[in-house]
Amino acid sequence: MAHVTLKKRPNSAAEDQWDPLAAKKHQSNKDVDDPAAALANSRHEFGEHGGVNMSIEASATFTVMEPETLQRMFAGELGPDRDFYIYSRHFNPTVLNLSRLMAALEGTEAAYCTASGMSAIVSVLLQICSSGDHLVAAQTVYGGTHALLTHFLPRTCNITTSFVDIRDYEMVERAIVEGKTKVLYFETISNPTLTVANVPELCRIAHDKGVMVVVDNTFSPMLVSPARLGADVVVHSITKYISGGADINAGAICGPAKLVNSLMDLHQGALMIMGPTMNPKVAFELSERLPHLGLRMKEHCHRALIFAKRMKKLGLKVIYPGLDDHPDHKLLKSITNTGYGYGGMLCLDMGTEEKAYKLMSLLQNYSQFGLMAVSLGYYETLMSCSGSSTSSEMNEEERELAGISPGLVRMSVGYVGTLEQKWAQFEKALSRLVEGSI
Ligand SMILES: Cc1ncc(COP(=O)(O)O)c(C=O)c1O
Questions:
Q1: Which of 6, 237, 425, 436 is most buried, most CB within 10 Å of its CB?
Q2: pLDDT tens column, 40-91
Q3: Given ligand 1 and candidates 125, 193, 240, 412, which is best to mutate, with the most ligand atoms within 8 Å of its CB?
């Protein structure tokens, strides 16, 4: 054999024959409710020379010694479960290692990582749905996802979507067409309105009708574990909190091993055929960041809650599900994993787009509170006016239905500097805004 056998940590749960995709089976993750504990239980991959970090398998292709080995690999008899790799658009050991961590994080049997969040979403929906199928989706989802469901999938694949208010369970139930609807799709905490999904109840409704539940957990890694609450598939834009550096585009599909394996099928697999492949060097970088995701999330959440409370005290219209008077506060409290908080995203409704941009400009250029930029999960605070940026794919009526007002400023609260230093910067910009409007 030409492949290298990596050193495994002694006493690792993976000493027995391991199935690379079925992380849960061998790591007892099904009994581990806290994602931090599940991550710590994951197999630790050491470097080829005993390094505490794994080696990067940068090869696009892999050698074999015997011709029949290659034939058996293409016939599906030998695969990554036995350390046989064909080609890195299929499985790659370094990407697979990050994928195992993602499966542990989300408590799913398996996972695989992709080049972006959008490619994860498109790929899994195309794997589950065929031409003529139907989805039911939350009317408040990320603008790119909304465009995919509204325009791209109907035009290219004849896959249609009915949008619903996921807080209206009867509406969700009515929208499901038995036999035709294949997926119920929503975000745990929605972009940008921060509506919280009742994951257990929505899963019950969908599963009663034989519909799979796909949840985008981009806004709430660690805080909420949708698969532990019943969801079949969890997708991520790793680009955001999981990366934390605003320097990488990446995504993941976490779900049953059978589904993840099917994504790699040589004839029918969406990932294998469309090829939104994650670079192994990127996978390595990201697997170095997952161990401190929990710590980062706690600080994002801690600061967001304090800022939200203080902003509210100043009379601003704040939307933050950690506030007692947020309509979804109790629900979020009931589904969060203990000790992380209520999310690092908050919204300020400034009434008009003009006022929203004025505030953001002062916060960036006058008081250095944060940066005017889309995306989220960065260590600096990022601010954007959703209606004219990340939700601009939606028309005015769709934005109104989704509750996205023109003056909505979405903030991804960062953790650099001290909390009081940052708060003083916020107050300084706000005073200037008020002075300017007098
Ligand atoms: C909730 C959510 N899902 C998916 C995406 C798409 O992810 P990516 O930009 O990594 O393709 C985004 C991007 O903003 C998002 O906010």
A1: 237
A2: 999 999 999 999 999 999 999 999 999 999 999 999 899 999 999 999 999 9
A3: 240
